[in-house]
Amino acid sequence: MAMTVASSTKLATGESVVSARIVIFAVLGCNIAWGVVDGIVYIFSNMLERGRLSKFVSYAKSNSPEKVVTILENEIENTIFKSLNHEEKKQISTDFLKSISKVTPQKAHITREDMFGSLAIFVLVFTSGFVAVVPFFFLPNNVYLALKLSNIISIILLFNVGYQWAKYTDRNKIKTGAAMVLIGFFIATVTTLLGG
User: Fold this and answer.
1) Contact 43/113 with Cβ under 8 angstroms?
2) What is the rounded distance in angstroms from the CA atom of residue 123 to the CA atom of residue 119?
């Protein structure tokens, strides 16, 4: 995101030479906006999931166990339990149904944990983009060089994200890091060409 904004600022202003100050404000403004958006999406995603679970508890209490067990079996189909056979899935679903019967459905609301999580996401989004704008603070009179350094920093960050992600997905770390860089280039190119 920061790489795209920094690269497209020149196009947006229509100036042949863009000041470091314009780039800094553009990138920081974009980081703040996306940090807020991502934080709000996090809160509403959590509320949606709690609402879905609450609705399911209500449904489970008002329908036959056979119906509920069938739904539970479908729910666990795309999880780690998918490797279990039918009887094992049925047993898990039955046990889960017994636990649900003790739960009281609650209306979905915003929790304190949602707010702290949202704040953490805002800080993460803002700081990850802020790193890419640091060269503009140190090279205010050479925006071209600052932009190149900013892009290099962004590429390193993208590679690192892919490398770390590969650890959790049992993929080749180098190839995944390189793929993340290519995806980043593609997104930055498309958004820059579209004036984003």
Assistant:
1) no
2) 6
Residue 129 in contact with residue 158, Cβ under 8 Å?
A: no
pTM of the model: 0.71
Contact 179, 155 (CB under 8 A): no
Q: If we measure between CA atoms, which residue out of 36, 34, 40 comes closest to residue 5?
A: 34
Q: Is the pLDDT of residue 175 over 80?
A: yes
- CB neighbourhood size of 108 (10 A): 16
Between the alpha carbon of residue 68 and those of residues 60, 97, 104, 110, 132, the distances in Å are: 6, 7, 16, 28, 50
The two counts, helices (H) then strands (E), for the chain are 7, 0
Could you tell me which of 96, 118, 105, 126 has the C-alpha nearest to residue 46?
118
The angle subtended at Cα 51 by Cα 63 and Cα 109, nearest 5°, is 140
Q: How many other C-beta atoms are found inside a 10 Å radius of the C-beta of residue 120?
A: 12
Tens of pLDDT, residue by residue over 60-70, are 777 777 777 77
What are 86-95's contacts with CB under 8 Å, separation 24+?
Answer: 93/68, 93/69, 94/65, 94/69
Tokens (6 digits) for 6: 């920094």
Rounded Cα distance, 82 and 69, in Å: 15
In 3D, which of 51, 2, 55, 49 has the Cα closest to residue 24?
2
Which tokens belong to 150? Answer: 């900013």
